[in-house]
Every structure is written in structure tokens, then in C-alpha cells.
Fold this sequence. Notes:
Radius of gyration: 21 Å
Largest sheet: 12 strands, antiparallel, barrel
Number of domains: 1
Structural class: alpha+beta
Mean pLDDT: 87
Oligomer: single chain
Amino acid sequence: xxxxxxxxxxxxxxxxxxxxxxxxxxxxxxxxxxxxxxxxxxxxxxxxxxxxxxxxxxxxxxxxxxxxxxxxxxxxxxxxxxxxxxxxxxxxxxxxxxxxxxxxxxxxxxxxxxxxxxxxxxxxxxxxxxxxxxxxxxxxxxxxxxxxxxxxxxxxxxxxxxxxxxxxxxxxxxxxxxxxxxxxxxxxxxxxxxxxxxxxxxxxxxxxxxxxxxxxxxxxxxxxxxxxxxxxxxxxxxxxxxxxxxxxxxxxxxxxxxxxxxxxxxxxxxxxxxxxxxxxxxxxxxxxxxxxxxxxxxxxxxxxxxxxxxxxxxxxxxxxxxxxxxxxxxxxxxx
Length: 335
């Protein structure tokens, strides 16, 4: 509960600060409202002049693991899908920088491609800088681990198995299943330099697979006549801190979800929650128990291809310290 209270208090402060950015962006974005078709005088709809006019806003954004969703959780909607008649949609790319705290940081570069309008392929290359953990290890053990970071390669496959409103039933959500293969470069080296310390607390492998099941539903006029997207899902994983600390022997089911509201055509506001488990036991002062993750986002949409997301996160324990004032920026482009 302490983590939740800190998140709520600091989220209010961030919204006040970022609200000024929304006002600045308004003049630049007011002419970019997505319009699929124009209604003629006789009540029929005129066709859009070209394909770009039918394109909706560039949502979802990319998670830090390289698939479609928010910052830390997926949605069932795929990234930049083409029509069902097209084999290849158009690719999307993004760059994300996350300042965690105490010198720890995360940078992810992502590429996604959606096939047949139903199958999303994604790759995210992510560098995790361990910050002052390196010094804390040396102070506690006398060992210089000789490195400041680890890399995590995320190979993602997500398939839309149920379309939203399937069978002309307005209550049916979109449902997506996903598999995410993760490969860690660096954690084995750290473990070896520490004489197997991570093995002693549960480390088993440098790679692992997450499986996800996610449902999303859009309510077009739920809040002040504007759309709200609600997503919820389950994850099965053996990853320690998303895989940046490697993978344990036990697998766990966890809950995750998000809510996204679009108060304006050029602005989305999101909240995310991701449950965590403790695949490893603790090393006091160096590897503390994991906490659930919370994140809030403002997503600016200057046009139908570009999104800029500002994220504030309460991440709880990240290795050696509580990190409840983390901030991130993502720039994503859809071709």
C-alpha cells in the first residue's frame, strides 16, 4: 500500500506539470483529428481520398518489452495493422528511454510488423544500466563485476484470436494471445563474477518465455463523451524483474491491465498495473523482493503516424532500492 500511496501522490504532481505541455501541443495538433469519412448532404458517406486518411491514431504505443500496449502492459489491439486483404501491414519503430533512479536506466529500441491484420511480430533490444548497484556490490563483497549493464533481447509474437464485436455482438472484446522469448546478455557473466550468488537465490537460465492472454474493449463515449479503452490479462512467466535479472525455475501466473482515455483526438491518458512475483530470494541491500508496477502516461498524437509518450512510474524495489519516481519518454513512428 505504501507503494500505491507514493504513486498516487506523485502522479498528481506530474499531471499538473505535464498539463502545461498539453496546452502547448494543442495548437499543433488541433488540425490532425482522425476522420475516416465525410457525411454527404444525402446522408451517405464519401470515401476517403487516400489510405492515409482512413488511418486511425497511432495507438497502441510500444511497451518497454517491444510489443503493442502501454509502457509496461499489453493491449489486445495490434500495432499498425493493415487490412485483412494485405499480407504485410506497415512497420512501426520506437525509441524509449526510462530513468529508473539511483543511476539505473533503461533504453529500448523496438520494431513491429503486423501480418494479415492479425499477427504482430516484434523485436525489442533493451539495455539496462545497473547504476549504483555496481558500487554496492563492490562495497559488500569486494568484487568488481567489471560491467555497468545487461542487455535483454525480446522476440515477440502476438495473434488476434477474437475480433472486437465478433458476430455483431457489441459486448465482445478483442482477445490476443502472445509469446515472448527473452534472451539476457550479461546476467551469466555477473553471476560468474560473484561466484554463483544469483544461482544461490534462484537463477537458472539466461533465457525464458512469457505467455500472455489479453482482452481489450473500447467504450466509445464512456467518459465525458470520449472513448475509453479497458484491457486486462494474465501472464505466465519465470522472469526476474522482467528478465533483466535472468529467469528462475518456477513459473507464476500474474494479472496485468490498463485503462486509456482519449479526452481529445490528439491526447491519450493512461494508467497501468502489473502484478509481480518473487522468483528469487533476497540478497539484503542488493536484490530486494519485487513490488507490483504502476505507470501513468500522457500520449501526445501530433499526427496519424507519430506518438510521443511521457510516462511516470512507481516501480517499487529495483534491485537495491525503492524506485517510485521513475520517468520515461517514448517516440514512436508508424510508416
